[in-house]
Amino acid sequence: MTDDERGDLLLVGRVARAHGNRGHVIVNPETDFAEDRFRTGAVLFVGSEPTPRGIREVRFHQGRPIVSLEGVDTMNDAEALAGAELKVAVATLSPLPAETYYRHDLVGCEVRDEANTSFGRVADVEGPLERSVLVVDGAEGQLLIPMAAHICLRIDVPAKAIVVRLPEGLLELNRTKKL
Known about the structure:
The chain is mainly β. It folds into two domains: 3-92, RimM (Elongation Factor Tu (Ef-tu), domain 3); 103-174, PRC-barrel domain (SH3 type barrels, Roll). The protein has helices spanning 3-6, 34-37, 75-79, 103-106, 170-174, and strands at 9-19, 24-29, 43-46, 51-61, 64-69, 85-89, 110-113, 118-126, 133-138, 141-146, 152-156, 161-164.
């Protein structure tokens, strides 16, 4: 499958290990939407040379999906996937409710305050959906900014811009120096 056929891919999990002797794998999810990403019939792109594999069946145990993938029929097949990345095509993602964002949409956004002072660009988003934190790389180091409505005033994904109002002391408390 070519890049054009598959489109941009988004990491949604990693294979932790084999489970049982019929080719199932336990997944460490890397998504806030595990039930949507890991459902029967969904297609995952598996490994460093992403191979599309449909999900034959899935169940959840302690928040982690246990998945049966097409073409993975034995314990040996499943063990060979340990550590493999699991991705989905960005084009298959569903629209989100208002004021909810996919992490990959926020990465690269410039973060500024209301006075137009730039703090840098979002390098990553950490934490679960209800407690997400922007990881901002700036000239003075890294800054962690909670994604709370009273702090992140405006998020404009198409313009790759986020306007924030930082509480007093947040800069000093959370900034780390570059080595």
